[in-house]
């Protein structure tokens, strides 16, 4: 079990676990997509050196 | 346009698929070939240098086993690798990917061979170890014996695969949403927009925000690397152990970028302390390596001295001040702020110091 699914198993009735987990993963992916489109900067800690 | 980091993450996902599609005995050789192909496409100097390091290190060490001059062989080859690392730092007109990480991995192999901790690695084991794309560009600086054991014990486990996928997704969320987006907003709101000489407090605040962003981005991307590794069936070394829970600066450096600090402990702090009989010399040497590993510059020499000085002050305060009288709860609450304050104070102080000197 993954950490989130363990948490879901503890807090949610069985019928709700998979839909709620699916929603959480989708929300995370969506947030990553939206945040990476914003112009706040770029990932700075990848070891790539160039001018 | 897709940036380089995204491309490397996508290519690492393909490496995971290859690790399970290809027959088990060849899986990590194909992953290594894939890594070389990606590097050759994105940065031919990296591909060329890494191919030489990967192929020649086992051959040099195997040849060294047949001579009585193990120290000279290890020292000379380590000097060649360090020269390559310096060149990667200096030649900024070329794109270099992961040079800081794979140099330390190669030095670990040489160091352990010289100290007699492990035999000269086989060509194939070393090739698989150095050319594992998910950890090539963001760490951790994993160790060869552990990697070889993980490859041998690897088996398909859907629960492990799912846990790895969740870790990778969570890491990406930390890096982009917290590290870039939210800290980016905080930067925009809290820092003045005007360009020019800024006051000390503003520079300090900017440095605090950079440390917070660095934590989320670096820990997040390490999570992506470790998650993808786990999806490929390998549980590699952790790099962060809840650094915000550190009780003091000494504790912090055992929780932050652990694979680098343990590398410096094993190959710099311990030998220098043994040679000089001075843990202070060992501490300053280890911090100097940490600093120069990030960038070879006077700034990072001073940064190393600052951080080593912080550890030293922390050690002396623990011995001479009645800190045990401070309530435990108060110490737990204050410690993260004091640690972050010291770490981030380095930049405004050093920048001003350099302005005076230059």
Automatic annotation (TrEMBL), chain A:
Domain of life: Bacteria
Keywords tagged on the record: Membrane, Transmembrane, Transmembrane helix
Regions that span the bilayer: 15-35
Protein name (database record): Uncharacterized protein
UniProtKB/TrEMBL annotation, chain B:
This protein's GO CC annotations: membrane
Keywords tagged on the record: Membrane, Transmembrane, Transmembrane helix
Membrane topology listed for this record: Multi-pass membrane protein
InterPro entries the record matches: MB_O-acyltransferase, MBOAT_fam
Transmembrane intervals: 37-60, 72-90, 204-228, 267-292, 329-350
Domain of life of the native organism: Bacteria
Subcellular localization(s) per the UniProt record: Membrane
Listed Pfam families: MBOAT
GO molecular function: acyltransferase activity
Protein name according to UniProt: MBOAT family protein
Species of the source: Alteraurantiacibacter buctensis
Organism lineage: Bacteria, Pseudomonadati, Pseudomonadota, Alphaproteobacteria, Sphingomonadales
């Amino acid at each position: 079990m993954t950490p989130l699914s363990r948490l879901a198993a503890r807090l949610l009735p069985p019928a709700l676990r998979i839909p709620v987990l699916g929603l959480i993963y989708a929300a995370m992916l969506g947030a990553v997509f939206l945040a990476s489109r914003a112009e706040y900067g770029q990932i700075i800690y990848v070891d790539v050196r160039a001018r | 346009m897709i940036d380089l980091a995204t491309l490397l993450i996508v290519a690492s996902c393909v490496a995971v698929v290859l690790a399970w599609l290809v027959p088990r005995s060849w899986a990590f050789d194909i992953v290594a070939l894939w890594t070389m192909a990606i590097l050759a496409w994105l940065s031919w100097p990296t591909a060329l240098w890494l191919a030489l390091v990967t192929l020649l290190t086992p051959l040099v060490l195997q040849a060294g086993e047949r001579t009585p001059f193990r120290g000279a062989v290890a020292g000379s080859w380590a000097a060649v690798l360090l020269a390559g690392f310096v060149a990667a730092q200096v030649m900024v007109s070329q794109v270099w990917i992961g040079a800081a990480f794979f140099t330390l991995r190669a030095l670990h192999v040489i160091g352990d061979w010289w100290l007699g901790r492990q035999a000269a690695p086989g060509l194939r084991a070393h090739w698989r170890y150095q050319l594992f794309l998910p950890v090539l560009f963001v760490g951790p600086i994993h160790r060869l014996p552990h990697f070889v054991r993980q490859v041998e014990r690897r088996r398909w486990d859907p629960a492990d695969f799912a846990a790895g996928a969740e870790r990778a997704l969570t890491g990406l969320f930390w890096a982009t949403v917290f590290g870039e987006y939210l800290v980016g907003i905080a930067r925009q709101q809290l820092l003045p927009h005007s360009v020019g000489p800024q006051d000390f407090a503003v520079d300090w605040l900017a440095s605090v925000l950079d440390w917070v962003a660095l934590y989320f981005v670096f820990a997040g991307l390490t999570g992506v690397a470790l998650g993808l590794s786990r999806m490929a069936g390998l549980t590699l070394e952790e790099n962060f152990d809840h650094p915000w829970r550190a009780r003091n600066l000494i504790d912090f450096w055992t929780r932050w970028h652990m694979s680098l600090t343990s590398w410096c402990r094993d190959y710099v702090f311990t030998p220098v302390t043994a040679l000089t009989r001075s843990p202070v010399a060992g501490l300053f040497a280890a911090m100097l390596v940490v600093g120069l590993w990030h960038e070879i510059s006077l700034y990072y020499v001073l940064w190393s001295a600052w951080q080593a000085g912080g550890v030293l002050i922390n050690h002396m305060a623990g011995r001479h001040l009645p800190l045990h009288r401070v309530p435990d709860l108060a110490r737990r609450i204050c410690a993260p702020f004091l640690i972050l304050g010291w770490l981030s104070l380095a930049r405004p102080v050093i920048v001003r110091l350099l302005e005076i000197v230059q």
